[in-house]
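Possible regression after last week's pipeline update?

I re-ran a chain I had predicted before the update to compare outputs. Posting the input and the new output here so someone can diff against the archived version. Not blocking, just want to make sure nothing changed silently.
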Amino acid sequence: MARVRTQLMIVFSVLVLGSAAAANAQDKLERIEGDEQTTVETFAWLPYVFYTANFKLAFGAGAASYGYGQPQLSLAGTAFATTNGSWGILANANNLRLRSNGRLFMDVIGGYIRYAEKDSYVSGNPDFPDEQAGSNDSSKANFLDSPARNGFVDVRLRYLLPIGFGRDTIINTFVVQDGILVSGSTGGWTWDPTISGRTYLGLDFFYNTQTLTPDSGDRPYNTNGFTFTLEYDNTDFWLNPTRGSRQLLWLTRDFGLGNSSGSWTMVELEVAKFIDLGSSRAFRQSVIALDLWTADTLSGRAPFYEGPRLGGLNRLRGYRQNRFHDLSAIYYCAELRVIPDWSPLNSIDHIGPITFNWWQFVAFVEVGRVSPTYNLRELHSRMKADVGVGLRTLIKSAVVRADVGFSHEGWQLSAMAGHTF
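New output (post-update):
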């Protein structure tokens, strides 16, 4: 259990309520039950308990709503405290439409966590005086174990361009039956932003302050700035894609203002492809999902938790959170996602207010590497790799996942809402 990343467990505990929608699409979800078609709208709250080596025993409660006020709006929040003196609060609001008929949407997430004990892959461990912590060839034991404080807020504005599927439809209605899309596809029939899919321009303001407090004194890692995003989502169903592709381009800039630890600029590119293998007697749905992500630092150096990094929640899940970080990175992933027609877990169709629409089994393989320079030959040498399996479920408007990754450094369990890509 020590390998369970604590931040992920907190957020997971809120989103497992089944009423938080993903943050990357502003849509309505309707489901067919018998002869009726109803809008998914829900509110729930849930107390929770979890244990990790860093937090010890933790107690908390969360609440979330989806579809209230605005049909695409989701709200969630949680608070927790632990037996070793750690505590935290988190809250978010996703897909708030700023005008009743407008194309501009806003997401807000913020929180504060105080750790009595936290492992961070930053230099300063006296056992490794000549090694850069987090580098590709660094030791897995080269980290600092110390108390820490982390506060953050992120405000994202997202504008839907009037092209492709978004030309005539701003808020789409997806209709599902037993969790499987039956109508309302937004893309995937051809790669052409003027015909298929939806294209977004995004602007994020972020502020993140993280302070480690080892015996040698406070070590602040602060950053704030803007991220400019261009996204072309040409998938059929953003919540659980079966065909199409998704491309994202990010440009992030910290201008070195306020309490920033230093200015830096980073560019990122991600390309995902989804291949529908169809249904069969054994599987209701089978999909191959492929992902490529790469990043490069154009100036300065971002904090270890913001720059090009691998390990943890989404990339190289067989390694610890932010295990590798440097000025450049590249990453590849292939997942096989199948929804069986029958499984032993089908007998678990609800727990209290939570209803499970389907269970999905996942097998994945990942490779990646960080480097001090963006050199493709170097980035593709001595790459880190892992394999793993996952269990995912659709709870009303949210996909919730638990993945186990295995690498030469051991195994890691992570839990979160949404697919990895």
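Follow-up from reviewer: compared with the archived run. Residues 1-23 have pLDDT under 50 and may be disordered. Marking as no regression found.
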